C-alpha cells in the first residue's frame, strides 16, 4: 500500500506542477503535453516514456486498490461488531481513508475519460489539453467533480503521507512531528495547486 | 472455649535434607549429592506446576528446558497476570557492584536478622548465594533494569539496609521480572514443553500411596472438574494475605491451593506470620475492594505526623506546627521516619487508636512533603516521586504537592506457608511448595525486595535439582486415572461445589469475606493479644457455620461463575483463619511481624522469647474445626547470633 | 450519585447477547469503576440474579486483566485502566454504556469477559530472548546504553490488556506486538534473535483473527501505559529489515 501510494504521490506532485503551466497560457501547457510524449527520444520511441509512466501508474492504482480492498475485507472481519456508542479519537482524514480512496478511484476513471480519452468531454480536441481542461471545467458539474476530488486528495494525502512513513518504518518519536507537518503542508499544497485550475476556469481567470 | 484450642504437640520435625558442614558449602554439597535423571528419560516424567507467578513461571520454564513434561495452571486468563506483576520496589542481590561492603555473607546476615531469628540459616545462606545468579539470568532475558549513564546496572538502598543492593525497573520491578519469566515460559508453551491451562483453578490435591500424584482442577470457563496426574506436584500459588479481605494482594489471590494441600497432609508453617506494610492508601469507604501500596521509598523524604489533640478535624494546612506530633521522629530519634515496616505500622495504629487519626473514619496519618518541597524544590521531589504522586492523586483526587498524603498500614505479605524442607518438599512426598506459598526463608518478617529474590531463586535454581533428586529416586509407574482414590477426590470436589450452589441463602460470599476480614484485622492484625485471639477463635467457627447455612451463589457450576469461585475461596479462608489465630495465640512471644501485646520491652517494642520459641511451628491438620497437632522445628543459629532488635 | 448502566450481557460465546439496563444508586465518587460494578453485583446476587462477569485482579493498573469499553472508549474516559478509573469522572444521572472488548480475535467468554489468549500466542512465537536457566553471562558483561535501556523499558511497560485491539477499528494487535518487538530488539541481548523474533511474531499475529494496521492511531490513544505510536513504525522497520535479509 505504502509503496504504491508513494509512487502515486510522486506522480501527483509532478502532475500538479505540470497542471500549473495552464496559467502561462495554452502554448505552454500544450507544448508541455507534447514534450511529455517526446521525452527520452531518440533513445525511447515516441510516447514510450508516457506509456511507461502510464503502466507504472496503472499498476500502482490497481495494486493500491486491490490491497486496500483486501485489507479492508480483513479489517472488517476482524471487527465484526460495532460499539453501541463509538467515540473515535482519530482525525477526520484518518477515518475517511476508505471512502476517500473510493472517491479517488471513481475520480480517476472519470478524469481519464474526461481528459485522456476525451470520451466524456463534450468539446474535446486531441492534442489540445488546454482547451480540453477549460472545456471540462466550464460546466458546473465538471468543475464540481474536480473540486470534490481535490478535497478528497488533500485528506487522503494528509493521512496517507504520514501513514506511508509509518508503514515503511521511517517514523520514530523524534521525526513524528516533522512528518506530520510535512504531510499537512504537502496535502495543502497539492489541494491548493490542483484546485487553482478549476477555480481559475470557473471564475474566468483562465479561458 | 472451643475444642479447637486444645492442640496437641507431636513429634518435633527436623529438616533432614539440609546438608551439614560449613554454611558456604552446603548448597554445593546438596547439589552434588542429589541424584540426577538421565536427560533421555525426563520426557517420561510429568510435573504439575500450579501457579505462574515469579516462582511458578521460572520453575515451569526451567523444568521444561531440562526436558520434563510440564503441565501448568493458573486461574488468570494469562500466565502473565500472576500477582507477582504488582511488586514495585525491587529485588535484592549481593552483587556488591557499589563496592559498599556488601557480600553474600552480609545479605545472609541481614535476612536472618531482619526475619527476627525465625528462619533457617542454611536456607537463607543459599538464597543469598543464588541472588547473584538471578540478576545475571534476568538481564540475559532482557529485563530492562534501571541503568546508569555508563550503561551499567543501577541499584538503590531499600527497606532500611545500609548497602545499595536493590535492583529495580522504575516502580515496576515485579512486572518486568515476571514478564521475563513469562516469556521464557511462553517459549516452552509454544515449543510443546509446557501444557498451559489458564483460567483453571486447582481445587484439591490427589495423594495416592502417600505421594502427591496430581490435582483436581476446575476449568473456570466450562465448569468442568477434571483430574490431572503427574509424578510430582509443585505449588507456586502465592500468599494468603487475602484472608484479611483487604490487603495489597491482587483481588483473586487466595489460599485454596495451600489449604487443600494442608488438608491432604502438608503441614502448615508459621501461619500467623504476616507482614503489614505501613504506607498504603487508606480505605475510603465500605465499598473498598482492595488496598493500594505506595512505595516505601516515600518515607525517605516525607514526614509522618498526626494532630496532637484527639478529634482535631481541621484541615492539615490549618494545624500549626506546634500542634502537630511527628511521632516517629519523637519516639525513634535516630531512625525517625525510616524505622522498619512493622514498627512504623504499629505506631500508626497506636496514634489512630488514640483518636488522633486523620481522614475518613480516623484511619490514617499524614505523610507530608511540605518540608521536602521547601528544601529540595518541587522539581526534585517530582523527579523522585512524580509517578507515585500521580497515582495517589488519581485514587484520592488530592494533590500531594499541596495537601499531605494520607497513609495507613495494610496487610501485604505472608511469611507463613506450607512447611518445606531444604529441598522445598512438603511433608507430602512429591509435593513441593515454592515462592510465597512456602514458609521458608523470611522467618517472622520479610525484608523489602526479598520476596522477588526468593521466588526466582526457588523457581530457577533450587527446585529443579531437588525435583531431579526426587524423581530419580522414584519408580515412575503410571497411575490409572480411574484409580478409586483419584476418583474419590474428584467426587469430593464436585460435591463441595454442589453444596455451595445449593444453599441459596441470603448472604453473598463477599459479605462473609468482609466480616472475616474485620475479625482478622482487629484481633490477629498488627497487634495481637490473648483475649482478642480467643474472641476470634470463638467467632470464626460460628461464621463458618453461618456461611454454609446462609451463603448464596446464583447461577450454575457449568459455566464461568465468579461468585462460585469466590465462595469456594472464602470457605477455605474461613478455615485457614482459625489456624492463623491459633498459631498467634500459642506463640506468646513477639517476633518480627507477630506482635503480642503481652510480650514487649520497657520501651514497648517487640520482645522475643528465644528460650521458648526458637522454633518454626509446623501444624498438622486433623479435621475441620478439630484441634491440630503442633510439630516444632528447632532453629539453631551458628553463624548469626540472636540479638534483640533496637531502633530507639 | 446515581447512574443508569447499559451493560452487555452474554451468557456464552454462542449466545447473541444484548444490553440490559441497571440503575445503581449511592455511588461514591471515590469508588473505582470496578467497585461500582461490585456493588451492582452484590445487589444482583442477593436478588438471585447472575452478577455481571468481568475480568480483574490486581486493581492497581498493572496486571492487565481488567478492561471494558465504557461509552465507546476502551477503559473509559481517562488514560488509565478500568480498575483505576474513578467514579468522580462521571456525571450524576448519566447513562453509561458498558461493553466487552470487541474483536474477532477476542471471542466473548461471558458478559464483559473475553478470551485474549491470542496475545499469549503472539508472545510465544518470538516475544522472548532464549536464555536457558544457568546459561547467563555475568550481568555487567554487556553494558546497555542508558537511552536504549530507558526506551526498552518504556515499551516493556505494556500490560497486555488488549485495549489497543479493542480500540482499533481494524481489531489489529500491532501496538501490542510492536511494544514487545521494540523492547527486545533494542537490547544487545535481543540482537541474535532480532530477525526471527519479528518474523515469528508478525506471522503469529497474522495467523490469528487480528486485522491489519492502517495507522489509525486509536490504539495508542487508548493505551493505558502510553505505548507510543512510533512503536508501530519501528515494528514495520524491523519487519522489513527482518524479511529483506
Ligand atoms: C503490592 C505489592 C508489592 C510488592 N513489592 C515487592 C517488592 O518490591 N519486592 C519484593 O521482593 N516483593 C514484593 N512484594 C511481594 C512479592 O510480590 C510476592 O511475594 C511474590 O511476587 C509472590 O510470588 P509467587 O510466585 O510466590 O506467587 P504469585 O505471584 O502470587 O502467583 C500465584 C500464582 O498461583 C496461581 N494460583 C494460585 N492459586 C491457584 C489455584 N488454586 N489454582 C491455579 N492457580 C493458582 C495464580 O494464578 C498465580 O499464577 C510485593 C507484594 C505486593 C502485594
Ligand atoms: C484507487 C483509489 C484509492 C483507494 C481505494 C485508496 C484507498 C486507500 C486505503 C484504504 C488506504 C489505507 C489507509 C491507510 O493505510 O492509512 C490508503 C492508503 C494510502 N493511500 Fe490511497 N487510495 C486510493 C488512491 C490513492 C492515491 C491516488 C494516492 C496518491 C496520492 C494514495 C495514497 C495513499 C497513501 C500514501 C497511503 C498510505 C499507505 C500506507 O500507510 O501504507 N491513495 N489508500
Ligand atoms: C485540477 C486538477 C487536474 C487537472 C487540471 C488535470 C489535468 C490532466 C490532464 C490535462 C491530463 C491529460 C494529460 C495528457 O493526456 O497529456 C491528465 C491526466 C491524468 N491525470 Fe490529471 N489533472 C488533475 C488532477 C488529477 C488528480 C488529482 C489525479 C489523481 C488522483 C490525476 C490523475 C491523472 C491521471 C492518472 C492521468 C492520466 C495520465 C495519462 O495516462 O496520461 N489528475 N490530468
Ligand atoms: S499496548 Fe497498551 S493497550 Fe495494548 S495491550 Fe499493551 S498496554 Fe494494553
Ligand atoms: S488503531 Fe489500529 S490501525 Fe494501526 S495504528 Fe493502531 S493498530
Ligand atoms: S485489574 Fe489489574 S490492571 Fe486493572
Provide the fold topology.
The complex is a heterotrimer of chains A (207), B (648) and C (245).
Chain A: H1 2-20, H2 26-36, H3 48-78, H4 92-95, H5 97-116, H6 129-138, H7 140-167, H8 176-203
Chain B: E1 8-9, H1 26-33, H2 39-42, E2 46-50, H3 54-66, E3 69-73, E4 91-92, H4 104-114, H5 121-140, E5 155-156, E6 166-167, H6 173-190, E7 194-197, E8 200-208, E9 211-219, E10 225-229, E11 232-235, H7 256-263, E12 268-269, E13 274-280, E14 303-307, E15 324-325, H8 327-331, H9 341-353, E16 365-368, H10 370-376, H11 378-396, E17 405-414, E18 417-418, E19 431-433, H12 451-473, H13 484-503, H14 509-524, H15 530-550, H16 562-586, H17 610-613, E20 615-620, E21 629-634
Parallel strand pairs in B: 1-21, 2-3, 2-11, 3-7, 11-19
Antiparallel strand pairs in B: 4-6, 5-6, 8-9, 9-10, 12-18, 12-20, 13-17, 14-15, 14-16, 16-17, 20-21
Chain C: E1 3-9, E2 18-24, H1 33-46, E3 69-70, E4 73-74, E5 95-99, E6 108-110, E7 113-114, H2 117-124, H3 146-156, H4 163-167, H5 174-185, H6 194-207, H7 218-222, H8 230-244
Parallel strand pairs in C: 1-5
Antiparallel strand pairs in C: 1-2, 3-4, 3-5, 6-7
Helix pairs in contact in C: 2-6, 3-5, 5-6, 5-8, 6-8
The complex binds flavin-adenine dinucleotide, protoporphyrin IX containing FE (2 copies), iron/sulfur cluster, FE3-S4 cluster and FE2/S2 (inorganic) cluster (FES).
